[in-house]
Amino acid sequence: MKKTLLFVFFLIYSFEASASHCGHDIDRSWHFTSSSYSKNKLTKSQINSGMAKYARWTFKNKTKKDIIITSIGLWAKDNQTVMAEAKRKIHLKPFGVIYSTLYVGDINLEVKGSGFSSCKYGVPSKTTKKKNYNAKKYFKPAIKYEQKPKDNFTLPNLILIIATGLLIYIFVAAKNRYKILNDFSVIKNFANYTIICFEKYSSFKGNASRSEYWYFYLFCFIAGFLTYLIDVWIFHKDPDGVLYINALVTMVTLLPSFAVGARRLHDVGKSGWWQLISLTIIGLIPLIIWLASKSKKQKRV
Fold this sequence. Notes:
This protein is an alpha+beta fold. It folds into two domains: 21-138, Immunoglobulin-like, CATH 2.60.40; 155-291, no CATH class. The protein contains seven helices and six strands. The strands form two sheets. A three-stranded antiparallel β-sheet has the order 1-2-5, with no helix packed on it. Strand 3 and strand 4 (82-92) form a beta hairpin. The radius of gyration is 30 Å and the shape is elongated. Mean pLDDT is 83; it is low at 15-19 and 142-148.
């Protein structure tokens, strides 16, 4: 009889202990991303193509209790073998939300299973942390609240700023006819033809030489590349998200690009509407040939 009562009490205690586990007080989700800063969920094809570098967990506290996330990890397909695991000590405040990432770029995700995490009730102690000389086995450190580097004074950023300033100076020198450009005919032509295209911003009538068209195309490429790097390197924007400066430059150059393309086609005896064949993808081949062809002697459009 005593053994029976002890067994019943044991079952009741086990039930209560499991029912009060901190995992029941958390909404947890996770997905693969291409970088530690990215929030975008990768598709199955992107994961299989090797784009997945991090697994990103989101934890939401549904109660007024303090909870500590102690580990995150990834099972293999059998859901028994641990493929990757990282110890954590992250404070999930009452009704709070936190994020954490795990580096998975060096494991075979074709045999991945489900993700797992562990937690406990309480608040992390404020004791001084000792330097962990075995930190590499835990892969990458947790990222809480999407922290990002604040230091922009790096050598690549300095080179980027100098290149952008030099590009601006070239156009100022060309517009004001500085003599310094006379010794650099290629740079001078590049700036002058680009300025002409902006002066004919929305003009679809007339003709444009090969130099005028391709120099402006070169300008659009350089401006797009530089603004992409400015968004990503200096302002730390997500490469997979919206890049505001790059998008602004694209919108500014879109109309003059179509206009100079129409004038270039006029110069080889074609209608400017032929630019639309680029929408068929295969039509890019004849379009590029026409844009690179010599001018035809004809009545000006």
